[in-house]
């Protein structure tokens, strides 16, 4: 098992560096073709931070390790809100823009609610087994396209959003070096995804744990490291919009894009306790929305951040107890 752990960690490192190289190369190429930094910021950079989850999801689906796929997405969404936003709020209370409160957070909540419905066929459609089907996956991808259209429209009409995106510093390289960076990044992502999935399955088998548990804990936290780093640094710098926007945007990407793409590759059976985990994700997102109105302020204070962190560790304890 020691080698499995070493290779698992190597997989995490490869995913993080792979996403970084791919973003550098792709953003540089886009800049050379005179694509605006607004478009680059909303696509290349945003997609880049979600590449670890996507790579793991598609790789696991192709290898029929479907429990890891759903566990990774739901676990990442829960960790993003309870752990990452909780830690950021402990460092510094987060003031949230009204558009995030009234649009992005409800959209993330609706996405989790939709997954709950799609994952409970026996409850809503009288079907014996529960699974997120290819049809469900295609519907999620269609909704993701609509979301991206909304984001572009919002950015064009919102001076602050446009200024933020336009201020994104993009370093340009020669065309050949940009292509090399992109290919290296893609290669590292493929390698990292393979290492992570194979060794996560190996650890689960040797430790007598379910793939779903590994996906919800180790894999989910590992693939959320880019979001943790980005949001924590943004919080320290006082850039609250980036800190919370990164988390909510990542959850929306995870739900609609990554789960949609993964379930389009192969249907995702839902484990026995899968509905409970999805319900926790719904509750965490709903809790964030409710906290926005405590004392009539759109903010997440230190006490609420502590509640989130404690709730996350309580959830981890529940998962470990369930085995």
Q: Layout of helices and strands, plus pairs?
A:
Layout: H1 2-32, H2 37-62, H3 66-91, E1 94-95, H4 98-118, H5 121-124, E2 131-132, H6 134-157, H7 159-166, H8 175-207, H9 211-223, H10 225-236, H11 240-265, E3 268-269, H12 274-291, E4 299-300, H13 302-322
Antiparallel strand pairs: 1-4, 2-3
Helix pairs in contact: 1-2, 1-8, 2-3, 2-7, 2-8, 2-11, 3-9, 3-10, 3-11, 3-12, 3-13, 4-11, 4-12, 6-7, 6-11, 8-9, 10-11
Question: Your description of this structure?
Answer:
The chain has 323 residues and is mainly α. The protein has a single domain, classed as A middle domain of Talin 1, CATH 1.20.1420.30. The protein contains 13 helices and 4 strands. Strands 1-4 form a two-stranded antiparallel sheet. The model has no long low-confidence stretch (mean pLDDT 82).
Number of domains: 1
CATH class division: Mainly Alpha
Approximate helicity band:
over 70%
Mind telling me the CATH superfamily name? Answer: NCX, central ion-binding region
Walk across the major sheet and give the strand order.
Answer: 1-4
Strand-pairing-aware structural class: mainly alpha
Strand content: under 5%
Task: Please give the alpha-carbon distance between the first and last residues.
Answer: 18 Å
- Uncertain runs are none
Order of helices and strands: HHHEHHEHHHHHHEHEH
- Helix segment tally: 13
- Beta strand count: 4
Our Rg estimate from Cα atoms comes to 19 Å
Tell me, briefly, the overall form.
globular
């Amino acid at each position: 098992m020691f080698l499995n752990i070493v290779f698992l960690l190597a997989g995490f490192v490869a995913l993080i560096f792979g996403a970084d190289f791919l973003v550098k190369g792709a953003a540089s190429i886009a800049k050379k073709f005179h694509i605006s930094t607004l478009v680059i910021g909303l696509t290349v950079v945003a997609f880049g931070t979600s590449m670890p989850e996507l790579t793991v999801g598609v790789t696991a689906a192709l290898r029929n390790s479907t429990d890891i796929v759903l566990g990774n997405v739901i676990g990442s969404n829960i960790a993003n809100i309870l752990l990452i936003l909780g830690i950021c709020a402990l460092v510094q209370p987060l003031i949230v823009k009204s558009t995030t409160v009234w649009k992005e957070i409800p959209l993330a909540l609706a996405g989790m609610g939709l997954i709950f419905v799609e994952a409970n066929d026996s409850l809503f459609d009288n079907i014996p087994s529960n699974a997120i089907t290819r049809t469900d996956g295609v519907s999620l991808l269609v909704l993701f396209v609509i979301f991206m259209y909304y984001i572009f429209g919002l950015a064009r009409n919102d001076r602050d959003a446009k200024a933020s995106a336009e201020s994104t510093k993009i370093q340009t390289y020669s065309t050949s070096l940009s292509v090399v960076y992109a290919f290296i990044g893609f290669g590292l992502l493929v390698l990292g995804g393979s290492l992570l999935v194979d060794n996560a399955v190996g650890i689960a088998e040797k430790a007598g744990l379910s793939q779903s548990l590994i996906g919800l804990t180790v894999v989910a936290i590992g693939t959320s490291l880019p979001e943790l780093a980005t949001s924590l640094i943004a919080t320290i710098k006082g850039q609250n919009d980036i800190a919370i926007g990164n988390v909510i945007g990542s959850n929306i990407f995870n739900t609609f894009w990554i789960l949609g793409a993964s379930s389009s590759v192969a249907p995702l059976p839902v484990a026995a306790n899968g509905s409970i985990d999805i319900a926790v994700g719904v509750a965490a997102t709903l809790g964030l929305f409710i906290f926005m109105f405590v004392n009539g302020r759109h903010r997440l204070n230190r006490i609420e951040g502590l509640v989130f962190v404690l709730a996350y560790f309580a959830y981890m304890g529940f998962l470990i107890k369930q085995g």
